[in-house]
Amino acid sequence: MSKTNAENNEQVIYDYSVFTDHDIYLFKQGTHFQLYNKLGSRQMTVDGRQGVYFAIWVPNARYVSVIGEFNGWDKKAHPLKPRTDESGIWEGFIPSVQKGQAYKYHIVSRYHHYRVDKSDPYGYYWEVAPKTASIVWDIDYQWNDHDWMSRRAAVNTLSSPMSVYEVHLGSWRRNSLEDNRFLTYRELAHELADYVKDMGFTHVEFLPVMEHPFYGSWGYQIVGYYAPTSRYGTPQDFMYLVDYLHQHGIGVILDWVPSHFPSDVHGLIYGDGTHLYEHEDYRKGFHPDWETYIFNYSRNEVREFLISNAFYWFEKYHVDGLRVDAVASMLYLDYSREEGEWIPNEFGGRENLEAIDFLRTLNKAVYGQFPGIQMIAEESTAWPSVSKPIYLGGLGFGMKWNMGWMHDILKFMSKNPLFRKYHHSQLTFSLVYAFEENFMLSLSHDEVVYGKGSLVNKMPGDVWQKCANLRLLFGYMYTHPGKKLLFMGSEFAQWSEWNHDASLEWHLLGSEPHQGVRQWMRDLNHLYKNEKALYEVDFKSDGFDWIDCNDWESSVIAFVRKSKSGSEMMLVVCNFTPVVREGYRVGVPVGGFWKEMLNSDAQIYGGSGAGNKGGLTAEPVSVHGREYSLHLEVPPLSVVIFKNQWRK
Q1: 22 assigned to some structural domain
Q2: Does 431 reside within a domain?
Q3: Which residues are identified as catalytic?
Q4: 8-state DSSP, 592
């Protein structure tokens, strides 16, 4: 049952397997969603000998061996054997292989005389790029986030506040004293947790941390789906980062890319000399935009690879959500393709039926296994019911990025305030459809790259006006229905476009305008988290009432946000011009005193100091169809937020 390697007398043991008959049944059926416990490499003891068990799915291979540091990368030293159950899995146990040793699979295909050395698709840890081998490793860790995990389901719900700080780990902050090197996961844990907690964000969202050979892809071209990138440390180091954030009450969302993968030869492409993970037909299997390959969602083993990967990050790394990248590219067969460059589905349509079924299966499985997590779709079209339950015909996501709001508001804010009144619908249109999906409002990394400029530099006017406009934008965003996401650096008005090769421009915080924007963002976050009216009813019209959305001539809007009980209300008044609106009367739902909770024009934020001296008592003057009203001074380029203190 064993084969002896004559050169070093090591044995490959073939009569041991981690797979049970039930595992193989589920695998063939397409419902084995914990394959990370079976495929790949894992340390164990067999017949009293310590070593490593290897298993890889390559059904069209003619020969497979494990090569690595332990055998001098000898392609003949440690061959694996295929299972006899037609699963396509090759396996074997190699004694004496140790943790930390690099390895690959040498694969000889049945077809085309194809030979290749592949990294482990299920590998836990990889060499630091540009090296490409997998590393024998474990994912053992002593977690200390029990309190967070026990209450996560209660604080990670759709009725909870969610203010997400989007972070690229390689460029949030670097060590300028040591050749601008990356901070490690453990260094980032302490600095990031302190900063995020102080700023009042509830979650962080990391751009893809999975292993990627090209750093400039920001992690979106993944080869090691099961390995946090080794650029910043080991798997346990990344676990420490998640653990530490949880201990400080901060949730962790990972950007996840099941839509495409790169053509690097050591990765998934052409896995066993055939199109194993990707479609064979170029019209279905290749992304023209990114020059990457598309997963074949109709294949059981590919669906299991991806769904197991989602399970893996939730189970082994305790993450709280996945933001699923480029969902639109998955849903449409003609995405970024001209006529004749795509294949219609069986009914002649453009919908990718296999991808739709995959996404529904994914969401049903994940929510069923891990209560309290969130699945968030980056979906840029009007595809219906992305965030609706599967039993209602939806895709089953928890939330969807509101790309329409993002495009409209940035176009509106970029206009000279003198001309904004002619584009008023760009400001208000999002409320026409705001409750059709569970929306997350996002101002992400995509808006500050590729020549688009930073957020503050999208704003018109001089420095004062740019910063005032940015504070106004954030104020409108955080009072508008929907959860929130903001990319790093925007919170202190970074001047430059994001550069993944450098740290954020932290030195700008020595300047009063930038310090003012950050202080505004900090206070806005804390107000948002503390006021139920601003987050409790985000996805139903019950939590929102227009007071006035028609004053296009003045570019002023006013609305009310309400808590679930309706007893707590926040009045929001936004002035999108640099003109102070004195004696501006706004209707309110109830009488009594309305406290001025925040004013983006306050001097502490770099504003002019106009405002309402802490609040006003509503007068019995009917305006905007309301029995009571406030006689306001609305500052220039500002948002002012009031809270009702009592009812009459």
Answers
A1: no
A2: no
A3: 325, 378
A4: S
